[in-house]
Amino acid sequence: MESDDVKKMIKIGGVCGIVGIAIFLGVALVLEQLFWQNLGLSSTEQFLTTQGNSPYYQISIGAHLLVGIAMLLLAVAFFGLHRLLTYESSRITVTIGSAFGIIACAIMVIQATVQGTIMGRMGTTYLKAASDPERQSVVALYKGLRLFDQGIDLAFDTFFFFGWIVLAFAMTSDKHFGKILGSLGILLFGIAVIVNAWSAPLPPSFEMSPIVSLWVLAVYIQMLRAARSVPGVDEVRLNTRSVSS
Predict the structure, then answer these.
(1) Residue 165 counted as domain residue
(2) Which residues constitute the domain of residue 177?
(3) Count: domains in the chain
(4) Is residue 91 part of a domain?
(5) Cα torsion 27, 33, 34, 35: sign
(6) Sign of CA dihedral 10, 230, 218, 90
(7) What is the DSSP letter of 37?
(8) Which tens digits make up the pLDDT trace of 64-118?
(9) Residue 230 pLDDT > 70, yes or no?
(10) How far is residue 81's CA from residue 94's CA, in Å, rounded to a whole number?
(11) What torsion, rounded to 10 degrees, do the Cα atoms 192, 193, 199, 203 define?
């Protein structure tokens, strides 16, 4: 691939990564912590009633679609990071880590779509139930269906966390990132693996996502800075002529 194309891919990856993380943090912090938590929903029945009513139904579906879009952007970011880390020489660790990351993004798109559909549709089904036994059946079915998206979420964590651990290890020997940033990534994602494995298959009570997301954001910002040091085609040709002369 031409140097200019590599440089563009790195820049596009960095921008997509920053936007993707911003969307993810926005949904996680604004909607989850500041919106849904303040509704004071203390039971599954209350949750389904809220999910089935407008505008909460549209907000929930929209939020899950935003998460899916964020993951698509992060998949592009993994391609850009792979180009940067393998610009001077190919490394199997980078290829493996990038592949795990891209697979994880695809899994999360599925998870967000499945979870949003289950929440929204089961909410409307609960509201349409004509009797209390029917409503209780919907509640039981909803709890069972949620096990599916929790399992998919666990698969995402497995690929995403180990993918970043491998990439962070590769970063420790890369001039654009260095030992400190790479080692910090290994530490953070290593803790995330332990925390999530301890509570599996249920989500952990202590959520590492905001913390590791900030580290990933730092990586993508550094990608944009590193793209400046990647020579374009004209620079490569000029250097080649200088060496030959």
Answers:
(1) yes
(2) 3-227
(3) 1
(4) yes
(5) positive
(6) positive
(7) G
(8) 899 999 999 999 999 999 999 988 778 899 999 999 999 999 999 999 988 888 8
(9) yes
(10) 9
(11) 60
